[in-house]
Design a protein that fits this description.
Layout: E1 3-5, E2 10-11, E3 17-24, E4 31-36, H1 45-67, E5 73-77, E6 88-94, H2 98-116, H3 125-128
Antiparallel strand pairs: 1-3, 2-3, 3-4, 4-6, 5-6
Length: about 130
């Protein structure tokens, strides 16, 4: 079961905001999402670029704080047609070692197989428009 904890909104240069969420899940520890709230619509190209830079910045800071290694993280971004959740976001996963990275990819592969077989909810843009 996933749970999210909201943090303070982060102002972007455009005046829009994004929010860093800590995702509490048993399968993937140290998991965060930097999200562009849906009510703002789709972000501009400049917002996307800025959020990717912010995602890298926050990932390094979190990895340093949590794992004492600023480089122990992975960022994932799914484009408009490839993401499951509506709304724009960057996944930040803190990793401690190769085994945790292997587990992350295993869990993601399993999730995507279940979605492809329609055994797991998929509200991606492609699915919701019948593609």
């Amino acid at each position: 079961m996933n749970q999210t904890t909201n943090t303070t909104p982060i102002a972007l240069t455009s005046g829009s905001q994004c929010v860093l969420h800590k995702i509490k899940t048993e399968l993937i520890p140290n998991y965060y999402v930097l999200a562009f709230p849906k009510h703002q619509g789709e972000p501009s190209v400049a917002d996307v670029t800025e959020m990717l830079a912010l995602g890298t910045h926050y990932a390094a800071a979190l990895a340093q704080d949590v794992l004492d290694d600023a480089q122990a993280f992975t960022l994932l971004y799914s484009g408009y047609s490839a993401r499951r959740e509506k709304g724009w976001h960057v996944h930040i996963i803190l990793l401690g070692n190769r085994w945790r990275k292997a587990w992350l990819y295993f869990a993601l592969a399993g999730k995507n197989v279940l979605q492809a077989l329609r055994w797991r909810k998929d509200d991606s843009v492609r699915q919701s428009h019948g593609h």
